[in-house]
Amino acid sequence: MSVSMPVVRARWRDIGWIADLVTDALHPTAFGAWLVPDEQRRPYVLAAVARIWIEHALLFGDAFLLQDGSAATVWFHRYRPIPPPARYVDRLADVCGEHRDRFDLLDRALAARRPTEAHIHLALLAAPGQTLARRADILAGTQRRIDTLGLPTYAEVFTEADRDLLRGHGYAQRDAFPMPSGTIAHPMWRISPFSTDRRVGNAGRPAALARNGRVNGWAPR
What we know:
This protein is of the alpha+beta class. The protein contains 7 helices and 8 strands. It has helices at residues 15-26, 30-35, 42-60, 88-96, 100-111, 132-147, 160-167; strands spanning 7-9, 61-66, 72-78, 119-126, 153-157, 172-173, 177-178, 184-190. Strands 1, 2, 3, 4, 5, 6, 7 and 8 form an 8-stranded mixed sheet that branches. Helix 1 crosses helix 3 and helix 3 (42-60) runs antiparallel to helix 4. The longest helix is centred in the first third of the chain and has 19 residues, at 42-60. The chain starts with 6 loop residues before the first strand and ends in a 31-residue tail after the last strand.
């Protein structure tokens, strides 16, 4: 019988480590190459942008690590409007240089689809080079903690493997949409088992109004 590895809450000192995990996971992907076509600069730019958002999550959300540090998740508590990171425009310009426009496109594409209802947003799941079991461990361990907040959780994923992973953890898919990179984003929605609103199912609307388990409103970052 397999035993899941414990999950620990990340602290400020863990920001660099998590940024490295995100970079290692994203760097070899087509999505990472679209964000930063310059392969030599890609690790630096991806890590710097990840650091901005991880810092922000520790102020307006949560971040978690597997106990061995091999995987991480980053979440935002979107039960109220969240301001952008401090000096975000300037910091993004400083670290991205000529690639800034692509990050701007990404931000706008995700923000345009963001759910308007209160939720907890899974912004990043990074487990570079790890098996599906490791990715499942970090998701399951953190989901148990996030569920106790009693709010739905939302994520957008860009591969069928990640879509299937979230489905296996109780997420329902909302309407997919194209990204500026040419990839397809799959928004996923999960109702907390501790939710007090029994009218709403994992389709994301009151059950009586759901149609084929799909909805049109949703989003990310």
